[in-house]
Amino acid sequence: MKYEQAVIGAVNDVFTAMTSLEVAAGAPVRNSMEVMPSNISGSIGFAGDVSGALVVLCPVKTATAITADLLGMEVEDLGDDVRDAVGELVNMVAGGFKSSLARDGILLNISIPITVIGKGFRVSGPSRSQRIIFPFACEQYEFWIDLYYR
């Protein structure tokens, strides 16, 4: 339960501080094999008391809307601005996740963000990981956070 609260809290904090977009969390889903319909992902690995990865998954429309809001300009395609914004988004969410867990005595180190743009890719975590999918709605858009941990 602490991981769920840490992820949802981090996403809410990032969107409140960095955007004018309202975000709402759906019910987390544990250990699903479902593939999210995304065109861009940003991921950060973490290690320490717990190891795994935190991944942001967005369809094109969501990624461009979030980027446009962050940058205060129109964005129409998955170019460098969107790649950088999704990388920064996952970086900020992972930082909030790390800080939240540190308050509970769980210490982590996080890697640098990696972004992937494309169609038909599947993200998976380390072997024998637990997986939680966090669905979020942002205005009329949707995105997901995948948390893999062990």
Care to describe what's here?
- By secondary structure, this protein is α+β, with helices and mostly antiparallel strands.
- 35% of the residues lie in helices and 31% in strands.
- It has helices at residues 2-18, 60-71, 80-103; strands at residues 23-25, 29-30, 40-48, 52-58, 108-110, 114-117, 130-138, 141-149.
- Strands 1, 2, 3, 4, 5, 6, 7 and 8 form an 8-stranded antiparallel beta sheet that branches.
Write down how many β-strands occur, each being a DSSP E stretch of 2 or more residues: 8
What structural class is derived from the secondary structure elements? alpha+beta
User: How many individual helices?
Assistant: 3
- The secondary-structure element order is HEEEEHHEEEE
Shape: globular
Rg of Cα set = 14 Å
- Biggest sheet statistics: 8 strands, antiparallel
Overall average pLDDT: 89
Low-confidence stretches are none
The N- and C-terminal alpha carbons lie at a distance of 14 Å
Q: Helical content, roughly?
A: 25-40%
Beta-strand residue fraction: 25-35%
List keywords for this structure.
150 residues; alpha+beta; single chain; 8 strands
Please give the structural blueprint.
Blueprint: H1 2-18, E1 23-25, E2 29-30, E3 40-48, E4 52-58, H2 60-71, H3 80-103, E5 108-110, E6 114-117, E7 130-138, E8 141-149
Antiparallel strand pairs: 1-7, 2-7, 3-4, 3-5, 3-6, 4-8, 7-8
Helix pairs in contact: 1-3, 2-3
